[in-house]
Amino acid sequence: MPIRPATEADVSRIAEIIVFNNRLNFFPIFRDESFSFGTVQVLPLARQYLNDPDLLHRAWIYDDGVVKGLTVVKGPEIEKLYVEPAFQGRGIGAALLAYAVDALGARWLWALEKNEGALRFYARHGFTPTGARMLEEGTSEYLVQLQYHPSHGRS
User: Fold this and answer.
1) Residues ≥6 apart with Cβ < 8 Å to 56
2) 86 is in which domain, residue-wise?
3) In total, how many domains does the chain have?
4) 98: in domain
5) The CATH number of the domain where 103 resides is what?
6) pLDDT tens digits, 79-96
7) Long-range contacts of 8-13 (CB under 8 A, 24+ apart)
8) 154 part of a folded domain
9) pTM
């Protein structure tokens, strides 16, 4: 399987993938140019992963010769799951999600309520809303909690 622990050599790709996904998926919802094109930058984000060994230790990479996606898992929570936009639709996100659930024991995550594509993706893979919601810090947008149920979606 092309999923492995992240290393320091991966941090620039990790940061690139997160930045591009932020701009494509979250900027249309939040419309915060200052944040999406100012605050969220590759170099500071890469430094964050380099300077926080615990964060880097929780990151897992989809690497089949090219780093194409990542997931960050802390205990039972999937904190992040991103696929390079150029490689989306190829099963990479599904592989990362299955790995997070099956190998790492992840059982729940928070997703942006208006990110309909992400919500459909998670529903196809056995994640259902718990009913819990919370505001995304510093915004008026809600996150919804999703819980893994093996009887829904994939087995």
Assistant:
1) 6, 7, 8, 11, 49, 50
2) 3-148
3) 1
4) yes
5) 3.40.630.30
6) 999 999 999 999 999 999
7) 8/50, 8/56, 10/59, 10/61, 10/63, 10/67, 10/70, 11/46, 11/49, 11/50, 11/56, 12/42, 12/46, 13/61, 13/67
8) no
9) 0.91
